[in-house]
Amino acid sequence: MDSFVILCFAVVNSVALLALISLGLAVIFGMMRVINFAHGEFIMLGGYATVIANHCGVNLWLSMLVVAPMFVALIGAVAERLIVRRLYGHLVTTMLATWGLSLFLIGAVTAIFGNTTMGVSAPLGNIPIGAYSIGAYQLFLIGITALLVVSSLLALHWTKYGLIARAAMQNSEMAATLGINCDRVYAVTFIVGAAISGLAGALLAPISGVLPHMGAAYVARAFVTVISGGGALITGFLSAATILGPVEALLSYFATPVVGQASLLLLAVIILRLLPTGVSSLWTGGR
Amino acid sequence: MKLSRRSFLGTSAALSAASIAGSFAGGAWAASDTVAIASLHDLSGALDIYGVPSNLCMKVAVEEINAAGGLLGKKVELKVYDGQSDINKYPQYAQKAALNDRVVMVQGALSGAAREATRPVLRKYKIPFIYGSFYEGGLCEKNTFCVNTGGNQQVVPLLEWSFKNLGKKLYYIASDYNAPRNFGIWNHVMAKREGGQVLADDYYPLDVTDFTAAIAKIQAAKPDVVHSCLVGGPAMSFYRQWAAAGMLKKIPIISIVFAAGNEHEVLAPEETDGVIVAYNYFQELDTPKNKEFLAKVEAVAGKNHPYINGEVFGGYSGVMLWAEAVKRAGSFEREAVLAALESSIRWEGPAGVMTTDGPTHNTTQDVHIIKVENRVWSLIEKKEQIPPDTYGGKCNVFTNPNQTDFLMPQI
Amino acid sequence: MMRQVKHALFPVALVLFAALGPFVLEPYDLVNLSAFSAMAIAALGLAFVWGTLGILNLGHSVFFGLGAYAYAIAVSNLGDSTLAVLIGIAMPVAFSLVLGYFLFFSRLGDVYLGVITLCVTLIFYSFMTSTADPSFHIGPVPLGGFNGITAVPSLNMPGDPQAFLSTEATFSICLLSLAGAYILLSFLRSSDAGRIMTAIRESELRSELLGYDIRFYKLVGFAVSAAIAGLGGALYTAVMGYVSPNVFDLPQASQFVLWVIAGGLGAFVGPVVASFGFQLLSSQLGANQVFNTELIFGATIILFVMLVPQGLQPMLLGLSSLKFPNRFGILRRKEKPA
Amino acid sequence: MSGPPILATRGLVKRFGGVAAVDGVDLVVNAGEIRCLIGPNGAGKSTLFKCLTHQHQPTSGHVLFEGRDLQGLATHRIARLGIAIKNQIPSIYANLDVRENIRLAGLRRGLEKRQLDRVVELTLDEIGFNERLASQPAATLSHAHRQWCELGMLLASSPRIALLDEPTAGMTREEMLKTVDIIKRLNASATVIVVEHDLEFIARLAQRVTVLHRGKVLVEDTMDKIEANEIVRDIYLGRKKEATHAER
């Protein structure tokens, strides 16, 4: 019984982590068709912002939930202004430029902080479940991820900004004729995406090694999740995470982690082959 | 293009290249008043955490030698290459060091993959390769000399101690690549020898960051001790998630790689306190020789120098052992230096006495079992003068001078 | 006629270099340039399939890597390197046909196709890194996991495995192969089949309505690019003497894309030049520590993409003919958002 | 006429979701004809064309080419049988020059190089393109020239049937007249089915006219009779005429 609960926890946890690391990318890709290769580094910067703010005496929760997203939003704003804005509509060029940005950010962080930074540990203690015990912080993480996803959905569908954003995403020319400043919408979207990535990094900081290269472990996985999710902004990647996460978690548990990881990629390939525009084409009827 | 068969063929050309290389080398240091050695490390990229301090240790050694008047009357010059955590760079730079810089010795290429990519190149150009990282053991090649610990020198003392003091049921969790798999075999060797039990061998890809399922698996198996051979930044997540699940106080962790990537600094004390490792060297070692050494490190890299652990210490001991060999040989020539290294060079350094072992081309040395508390390591037990494993006599460059393949431990 | 002369210029230069290089260059440079050429050959494969046929293949490295591994395994088993190079070409081709059949016989958008190929190359990376166990072997050759296969024999005389070719000869062969790949692809591009491939890039619908089987042409083009990449991979392994799973990883895959974009999409000379340039830069950065290597390399990529968005070759051609109004090139227009 | 008609459809249906854009069309076209398809917007003309070439898969029903059922054939296979189409939205190779466009259309015929070159030059002549126009990228052409370029591609491919969807849309009268000429040349070797609104154009070309309405064939007759048909006037011509009046 307790092993079943733990297994369920592991599955839900892997879905939540996949969702958490993909959300920022999903917002940027879904709205702007920009593949942000520096996504992993935004996560890394979020982690660094948290750790450093915390060492400077800022309360951990404040560092995680406020300082990190704001800092990364700032970096995102600069990157958008200097790089991404000039390359809109050129998918591959943007991808390469953000790849350059990712190397640049890694280099910059290493040059400033070196390759070793003292981390912060997970707060909240642990919860015993039968013979097992799990970190309470991980439960918090699942909760806050759900909250983030739900609030993004609500923001997109119930607020004026969400409406404008969806309009700009559907048809930028028409939105422009309606008096919407698409450049501004894109800028805000990129910044919001960056802030979410930063928040993800901050939330991950207590349970992962905060190092200049930590982003590399996340980017491919986030990328695959978002693309196989398809056109529908939030629901798409969420459903992809819900399919891919459990497969990886369960196969890692019952077979080997390599099998789990390979199956995640293989499954993404199969999803894209069967549903060429991603999972969400099932209910949006293609794009 | 009209190339005659003769000039097109490598056998003759390689010979001439070798003789040229030889004459280059000879010419290069015979005429000038400096002699060059190469440092091949990842100074950027994901693996710089190992490369940067190891390179620093080489620098410290070179400065020490030069401050004492150099070697055979010549200043030693350190040619530094940044492998950029890209294995493709290693053969390139090894070649450059051999052909352009005409170095007399190459050290570095710490990761197994880098070492394997570099070794054949240096063998081809006949430049001695000093390997400074601890490793799985079983490398018994004429052109290579391993100055750090091999598999048996770390795993055997650590597991002897842990089976005796922590319990017989061991759970092995490791990164999925060559060295951890080889260390995994040593676990079984030791379990058989000591009557212990290896409950599981779990290998995780290097970029896994979510260890929830892994931890659940360990909890279900209820081991007495967890042996972790998880390597790299992403794997640090394991220790955090392990501590967050409250396991750190319940099941002790032993390791032979923990701290090599400064895990004990990146992670918080409440996530690492009590982890036990085995290395030939650790920075807190309380000996006069070590105090001297650390003073020199500070002189080179300032007070906030990176932590010097057992992995990167090889950068220092490698150069020093090589220098001793050069002194004994009275020459920088490959044959002479290798012969000297094979003649049991004894050197007393910060980590105690180290003696090169002729037949195995590995090094006999002390190993310290240490424990971390609040980011500081303290000695539990010292195992003196552990010789390298002979792999049943197969690890012997005198009887197998053409041996280049790895030897595997037999259970 | 002038055009043909202009086209011949580049391969002639390569052949001259192949002939004269051994007399003027240091052995180290010879080895280095051999490796660069092997990489450039593989980049040409992507330049062709992407620039001519319009297939955005983000996982081109899978063919390069398969060629590299196929050569390493074949030459270690057979001894003869000529046959091994051929196997290094054949393996990726066979795989590309299977993968291509899977991809082109469904209606996939270009980004999605790119992501699938990227996933495929990452799957190979995961698989190859997990083959450290000695039980993974082909003949006497262990796959070697993360460390890869080492001490791979270099090129030898056809039929005489003991007669290894010298550094000079290997250099010449690599450069001649590069010239050969360039000539082959240029011919293919200007042939009728190549024109049809260009047409397919321009408009799939129109081509289909004219009666061209676009799936067939894509499959053929994909296989050609795989063959060229495989040749590059095989030569690279022969020059470097080892192969590791890194040939499949994300940085390797991104590099090919970078070189093609930097050189100019649709061009052949540009990507070759860009590949040499970037490899030289990265190699120089590592040999002289000015500052953090990644920082400089990253900044270079950003600046390059921002300042020369249409790529090296179109920019230089544009400058020389001073067609400023058309500076941002036809090729830029092709690239459309997903 | 002996043998089956060159093109026939039997009960052709195409549904999009719940809407039947083509709703049971039976059409017979004989070899050598120029057939005009008319009907108000949404009558299903373009959809019918796309079904004929399998750009859309018909939901049910059959398309017969010289008695042969085309079911299951891919678009390019149908094109190879000699069914060429100009869609409503011009589809040419915008970044290639006109000559290359025409050449690509002729290339499929498997001619020798010299013969192909002759076909290309002849076609350029037939659509009235001089050397300057012929070597221009298609993207830089005017609207009418683009349409002619595409008609030239059809000419060069030497089809058995040419399906033309609104070839004169947006043209001046003179341009329309030139288009009529080109289509007549096309008709010399091919059966032509054309969707049009322009009455003068239809009068100049078509022998028979088929009226589509709400996805069904409403009536099929000569132009004179169609113009006299009350129902057609009601649903289509009348409105069209009013519209043209209003425009003037």
Strand count, sense and barrel status of the largest sheet of chain C are: 2 strands, antiparallel
Strand arrangement in the largest pleated sheet of chain D: 6-7-8-3-9-10
Broad shape of chain D: globular
Mean pLDDT of chain D: 85
Reported for the largest beta sheet of chain D, the result is:
6 strands, mixed
Please tally the helical runs of chain C, counting DSSP H or I stretches of 4 or more residues.
Answer: 14
End-to-end CA span of chain C? 40 Å
Helix/strand order of chain D, N-terminal first: EEEHEEHEHHHHEHEHEEHH
How would you describe the oligomerization state of the chains in this entry?
A: heterotetramer
Beta content of chain D comes to 15-25%
Question: What is the count of β-strands of chain C?
Answer: 4
Short description:
The complex is a heterotetramer of chains A (287), B (411), C (338) and D (248). Chain A is built from twelve helices and two strands, in the order ααααββαααααααα.
Give a structural overview:
The complex is a heterotetramer of chains A (287), B (411), C (338) and D (248). Chain A contains twelve helices and two strands. Chain A is an all-alpha fold and 287 residues long. Chain A folds into two domains: 36-113 and 133-214, no CATH class; 221-268, no CATH class. In chain A, strands 1-2 form a two-stranded antiparallel ribbon. Chain B has 411 residues and is of the alpha/beta class. Chain B has two domains: 28-150 and 284-366, Response regulator (Rossmann fold, 3-Layer(aba) Sandwich); 152-279, 3-Layer(aba) Sandwich (Rossmann fold), CATH 3.40.50.2300. In chain B, helix 3 (48-67) links the parallel strand 1 (34-41) and strand 2. By secondary structure, chain C is mostly helical. In chain C, the strands form two sheets. In chain C, strands 1-2 form a two-stranded antiparallel sheet. In chain C, helix 2 (27-51) runs parallel beside helix 6 (167-190), helix 3 (61-78) runs antiparallel to helix 4 and helix 6 (167-190) packs across helix 7 (192-202). Chain C is globular, with a radius of gyration of 20 Å. With 248 residues, chain D is of the alpha/beta class. Chain D has helices at residues 45-52, 75-81, 98-107, 113-126, 131-134, 143-157, 173-189, 199-205, 223-228, 230-247, and strands spanning 7-16, 19-29, 34-38, 60-65, 68-69, 83-86, 161-165, 191-195, 208-213, 216-222. In chain D, helix 3 (98-107) crosses helix 4, helix 4 packs antiparallel against helix 6 and helix 6 packs parallel to helix 7 (173-189). The chains are: A mainly alpha (287), B alpha/beta (411), C mainly alpha (338), D alpha/beta (248). Chains in contact: A-B, A-C, B-C, C-D. The interface between B and C is large, with 48 and 48 residues.
